[in-house]
Amino acid sequence: MPAHPMRGVGPRIAAARRARHMTQEDLALAARVSYGTVKAIEREARMPSDDVLDALAAALGRDPAHLATGGTRAIARITDAMPRLSAAIAAYDLPADGPVRPLSELHAAVAEAVNWRLGAQYVRLAQAMPPLLEELARALEISRDCERTEVAGLLAAAYRAADAVAYKHGASDLSARLVDLMRWATDQAENPLLTAAAAYVRTETFFAARAHGPGLRALEIALDRAPQVTDTATAAARGALHMRAAVVAGRVGDSGAAGVHIAEARRLAERVPEGVYEGTACGPDSVRIHEVSVAVALGQEHVQRALDVAHEWAPPRSLPSERRSGFYIELARAQLWAGRRGDAFESLRVARRAAPQHTREHPWAREDIETLRRLDRGNGDALTHFAEWIGAT
User: Fold this and answer.
1) 371 burial class (0-12, 13-18, 19+ CB within 10 angstroms)?
2) For a designed S-S bond to 60, which of 16, 25, 137, 311 qualifies (C-beta 3.0 to 4.6 A apart)?
3) CATH of 1-69, one of 2.60.120.260, 3.30.499.10, 1.10.260.40, 2.70.150.10
4) What digits encode the pLDDT tens for the residues 128-179?
């Protein structure tokens, strides 16, 4: 029988609360719920409603889906938010009247959304992005010339955050529209580094269409147009494009081009302290993750390279959750190809701990669990529970 979506939510809330050094009274006050409610939920005497779970998650700095185990509830909440997201972008140039916060507060709201995207907190994004996109559209419409490029840059980052929800949940047409709007906003921002970031994100549309050849050409054109390296920011912009071009070249099956791009990314990463630049993680650790991605993209004959990277190195917790999760999902595929089924299952479990929503929505994770269930009955109960959680058949 499938696990109840709220099974274990009380202990997870308690663990998250203790990790933040909060008492039950602190949590109740921060979430604006009663002390008795927090006590009852933590000892599993009652299950939280969606509104209470949202309030507790916000007070704990977590996504609601990180606290609940089941995927159905999170997926339903994201699906329910899609029509409003579509409506928000349909009127991108005709925003309805409404309030607009000061620019400093808009910066903070967009920064929060970017952090949610990097942390694969898709429920929070799905709920927050429609009103934020509408407000930013109003802000762009009324902004003075001196502020217009700044607001446009915020809008581009917000479109990218919204796209994370659409793309990860298979809404390809909506994702493509959001990418187009990100590129439009980037043009308004007149920032060549944002233009490079938009080219990086645009690759999603080629991934979705399995049009890897045109995707590689688009990235190479973007590299021709990107600013030359003069500082850390420009090195990061070009490095990110090379990382992505290496993966796309791998999917094309062009090992030579993949090698050239990953080597250039590695060279540029020597000048870039690991961090997030214009919304994209770049640096030496990110390049190592992409080395695994390239090896997996090139196919089973390159599997040893992925295994070698993982033998020498593991992504630090300081990296964005989605990127760490992606590393372990791709490593699991390499391990499965190498016949290391136990290691593959453990990698998927690590991916889940790093970013549960990202793992649940990743098609490779679902495919690999299905394969493991067919091939390996040694982890029967654990595999079954994982398969139920991820929605594998």
Assistant:
1) middle
2) 16
3) 1.10.260.40
4) 999 999 999 999 999 988 899 999 999 999 999 999 999 988 899 999 999 9
